[in-house]
Design a protein that fits this description.
With about 325 residues, this protein is mainly alpha-helical. The chain has 3 domains: about 60 residues, no CATH class; about 70 residues, no CATH class; about 130 residues, no CATH class. About 60% of the residues lie in helices and about 10% in strands. It starts with a strand and ends with a helix. The model has no long low-confidence stretch (mean pLDDT about 85). It binds zinc ion. The site of zinc ion (ZN) has 8 residues, from loops.
């Protein structure tokens, strides 16, 4: 074992302890072994050309970004960063400038955050959604107020509203007595939603999903572009997870705007403008986010060819997937 500048380098070193290029994952053990009595502060990867700080390679935790949720330590910092991360995410150029390849990646933490954040957002949207679904359900044709409905069905009235809110327009729950004999025991009957049509109201979000799918294929599955990008898969996976978060947010916001319109909570004249806004923003955001990821975040050079290829592929992929799903769901 050799010992240089407090860095131990040995052949038997564990894979995860080896110094690697943070961008492409190229093993830097050989480079470290050439150090004599002094060690440089900056290095350059012979594989991908990334100029990096050796301290970030040896101790990745030094590269933590103060507002970013993936780098949170402890619950308080997690909560605080959970609120700040989406605001930074809205402006992709600022986001990626700070998240260069040397910054540590924690996929597990990011996935947990996205699940938790979307669950909270979905719950908040489920409340007006459930109320709206109840108003639109057949029960209201008899002009029963919610108070009367609640007297008839007890807590199952709330359970129905919450269920319908969560799963509208996919599933619809209706309280019914457990059996003919006993009217005290109740259960929820779950059926297919009344208003559910995939191709009609989901096609803008399917375009977003197709755009994301094609960018993922370009960077992870096509050997030529993979070689061109010289990128560890985890960087791309991070961008995919963040894109899923934004697509889901645009979906939730669209639903909320439609529910508010149906409940007469927003002016009727504003609806045509507001309705398309979240998904339009999401499309523009996806273009800018992936372009900035390639050029500013991952520092891929030359970047123009890859950005052009990814953007064209994502437009074609998004529209193709949307048309395909429209055809299979309407035929
Ligand atoms: Zn490299």
């Amino acid at each position: 074992m050799q010992h240089f500048c407090n860095v131990r380098v040995s052949e038997s070193m564990e894979e995860r302890d080896r110094p690697i290029c943070p961008k492409c994952g190229y093993d830097q053990t050989g480079e470290v072994a050439t150090w004599g009595t002094q060690c440089p502060t900056r290095g350059i990867c012979t594989e991908c050309g990334l100029v990096f700080n050796w301290s970030y390679v040896m101790r990745p935790e030094l590269g933590q970004v103060p507002w970013y949720v993936e780098h949170a330590r402890g619950l308080r910092s997690f909560v605080w960063r959970s609120l700040r991360t989406p605001f930074h995410l809205i402006l992709p150029h600022r986001f990626w400038k700070q998240l260069d390849p040397a910054k540590p990646v924690s996929i597990v933490r990011l996935v947990l955050w996205v699940i938790l954040a979307l669950f909270i957002v979905h719950t908040l949207v489920a409340i007006p959604n459930g109320y709206n679904a109840w108003i639109r359900s057949s029960w209201n044709w008899s002009r029963v107020t919610f108070q009367q409905y609640q007297q008839m069905h007890g807590n199952y009235a709330y359970a129905e509203m919450l269920f319908d809110g969560y799963f509208y327009p996919y599933l619809d729950a209706i309280p019914r007595p457990w059996s003919q004999q006993s009217s005290h025991k109740w259960t929820l009957d779950i059926r297919r939603g009344w208003h559910f049509r995939v191709g009609h109201s989901h096609s803008p979000h399917i375009v977003s999903a197709g755009m994301l799918l094609l960018w993922s294929i370009v960077l992870l599955a096509i050997p030529h572009t993979r070689r061109l990008s010289k990128l560890r898969a985890r960087h791309v996976v991070r961008a995919i997870i963040l894109s899923i978060f934004m697509i889901a947010m645009s979906y939730e916001l669209t639903h909320l705007i439609r529910t508010m319109y149906e409940l007469d909570w927003i002016p009727r004249a504003a609806f045509p403008v507001l309705d398309g806004l979240p998904v339009m923003f999401c499309w523009v955001w996806l273009f800018v986010f992936w372009g900035c990821a390639v050029h500013l975040g991952w520092l891929i050079r030359p970047s123009r060819l890859l950005i052009a290829l990814g953007t064209i592929a994502s437009i074609l992929g998004g529209t193709t997937l949307s048309v395909y799903i429209f055809i299979i769901t309407t035929s």
